[in-house]
From TrEMBL:
Domain annotation Nucleotidyl transferase: ranges: 3-227
Name of the molecule in the record: Nucleoside-diphosphate-sugar pyrophosphorylase
Species of origin: Streptomyces yokosukanensis
Source taxonomy: Bacteria, Bacillati, Actinomycetota, Actinomycetes, Kitasatosporales
A matching Pfam family: NTP_transferase
PANTHER family, sorted: SUGAR-1-PHOSPHATE GUANYL TRANSFERASE (PTHR22572)
Length: 237
């Protein structure tokens, strides 16, 4: 099985931690970088090949990961010279990718079964499989519904339930056909194109542990929780 890890972003929201380090290499706990945890998880799940899409401070990631042999994987690299969006880096990789593969962000802390996401993707034959997580959003205000300047409904501090993308996807290489290598391609653009073409993605619903380390408070939470969850996150790794 083959995975592509998207690790080219600047990590602007996580500054100052990412001033000198690429976001996937910020430390979690006393011994591990986020990217190391992900690579160990992928290896334990049976992935043997991984492509790292790198850009900002990519040379540091390359020096840290090397050829991946320390985790029992074969790792290669794709360098993003200019911002290409979430999925744009994949377009220049099509000839190096199998028919189906896993794509994920390099800053995700989760006990998701990555191999099962890819197996489900293959079984459903969907163009794209999106790992999803249920989130409840609390609104701290009274919410008004208006029509022609008239208030027609009111809800005091409601909660709204959403399914959000976890930043982990099963993808078919054929889904990228028709897009031009070297041009940006966002995840949102691909999903909207699939919906317009009546070829909807498949949702892989997950209820375990997931944390997207995108902001300083997320990073602080990850460090606070890692010791108690280490055996869960690195089981079999």
């Amino acid at each position: 099985m083959h995975a592509v890890i998207l690790a080219g972003g600047k990590g602007v929201r996580l500054r100052p931690y990412t001033t000198a380090l690429p976001k996937p290499l910020v430390p979690i706990g006393d011994q591990h970088a986020i990217l190391e945890i992900v690579l160990r998880q992928l290896s334990a799940a049976g992935f043997t090949r991984c492509t790292l899409a790198i850009g900002h401070l990519g040379e540091i990631i390359r020096a840290y990961v090397g050829d991946g042999s320390q985790w029992g994987m074969a790792v290669d690299y794709a360098t993003e010279d200019s911002p290409l969006g979430t999925l744009g880096p994949l377009l220049g990789l099509r000839d190096r990718l199998p028919d189906t593969f896993l794509v994920m962000n390099g800053d995700v802390l989760t006990d998701l079964d990555f191999a099962d996401v890819l197996r489900r993707h293959r079984r459903t034959a969907a163009p794209l499989t999106i790992a999803t997580y249920a989130r409840k959003v609390h609104i701290d205000f009274g919410v008004l519904t208006t029509d022609a300047s008239r208030v027609v409904a009111f809800t005091e501090k409601p909660s709204m339930d959403y399914h959000v993308s976890m930043g982990v996807y099963g993808l078919s290489r054929a889904t990228l056909d028709g897009y031009t290598a070297g041009l940006p391609l966002g995840f949102d653009e691909l999903v909207l194109d699939l919906l317009r073409g009546q070829n909807p993605p498949h949702a892989y619903e997950f209820e375990g542990y997931w944390l997207d380390i995108g902001r300083p408070d997320d990073y602080d939470r990850a460090n606070a929780e890692f010791t108690s969850r280490k055996s869960l996150l690195l089981k079999g790794a």
